[in-house]
Each structure stands twice: as C-alpha cells, then as structure tokens.
Design goal:
174 residues, 6-stranded mixed β-sheet, Leucine Aminopeptidase, subunit E, domain 1, single chain, globular, alpha/beta
Length: 174
C-alpha cells in the first residue's frame, strides 16, 4: 500500500472513498464534516438520516465507521468516522487509531482501492496535529501489515494547513 500526504481540499479528491471526520449524529457540522456535506449535496444528509433511522439510532460511536454514497463528490463513497474529542476527556490514542483502521475496513468492504483521509480529531476536537499524524500513519501501516489480500492500494492524507502537512510528512518519514 502506498501512503502519502498532500495539501488540498478533500472534497475535490478523485479517489474511491473520502473519509469524513463526522460527529456522532452524522447530520453534518463544521470543518471537514460541513465541507463534505456541502460538496456532496442534500442527498448525503438524507442518507445519513436513513442510517440514523435504521442502523444507528443512537448515532455513530467514537472509533467506528460507516459508508454512504458520495453523491455529488468525485469520490464514490464517503466513509464517516467519529474521532475522539480531547476536550471531552477522550484521550486514548487507540480510539483515534480505530477511526483509521475501521475506515479502512469499511473501504475494503465497499471495494474502495483508493482512500483519502483528513486529520481526524485535529481540529475542533483538540488533538495536537503531530499526535494525530503519528497515530494515523502508525494505524494505517499496522492495518496494511495485517492485510495481505488485495484491497486498498493508496491512502492519501489530504491536509488543509501547512502545519498539518508538515506533521504528516514527518510521521511518514519515521
């Protein structure tokens, strides 16, 4: 599996799946979540509401992931994951790592070969971007080492700021 970090806007990525740093309600929010909902169009919100009515009546738990179609996005799928909120006392790096590995499991289940991730939990959820980068890169590498079957070929971390790009580049060099 190839792993890379680039500066950019995740909503314009031409990959099979993009990962949404969602909140547990799945009903949109700010930051990456709001940008993805805006770019995907209103059918994404309806798909998320349908998930809440059927599979996830209490919301998506931290560290879990679920897929919806990408609708108006270039990506075929949106994989929603809920990162831990450091401000709410959710400081276990394993919960953060689970966001990346669970998303890759879901990507494999829908047949996605290329996946773009944001820096889950590095924004309003209060995690230091350097820690997110170390955890994310480690989780993706560990996941790839445990999966020999054909599946995800490319993981691209798509980062909005130069600081985040630098943190992920450093983690990838380690």
């Amino acid at each position: 599996m190839r792993i890379e970090a680039v500066a950019g806007d995740i909503t314009t990525e031409h990959v099979d799946a993009i990962v949404n740093a969602a909140n547990s309600s799945l009903l949109g929010g700010g930051g990456v979540d709001g940008a993805i909902h805006a770019a995907a169009g209103p059918r994404l919100l309806e798909a998320c509401r349908q998930l809440r009515r059927t599979q996830l009546p209490t919301g998506l738990p931290v560290g879990h992931a679920v897929a919806t179609p990408g609708f108006d996005l270039p990506a075929r799928w949106v994989i929603h994951t809920v990162g831990p909120n450091r401000h709410a006392g959710q400081t276990d790096p394993m919960r953060l790592a689970s966001c990346f590995t669970a998303s890759l499991d879901v990507a494999t289940s829908v047949g996605a070969r290329t996946v773009a991730f944001p820096a889950v939990s590095a924004g309003v959820y209060g995690w230091d971007v350097r820690e997110v980068a170390r955890v994310a890169v480690g989780a993706v590498r560990d996941w790839a080492a445990g999966h020999d079957e054909p599946g995800v070929d490319l993981v691209r971390f798509v980062l909005f700021s130069e600081a985040a790009l630098g943190a992920f580049a450093e983690a990838l060099e380690a």
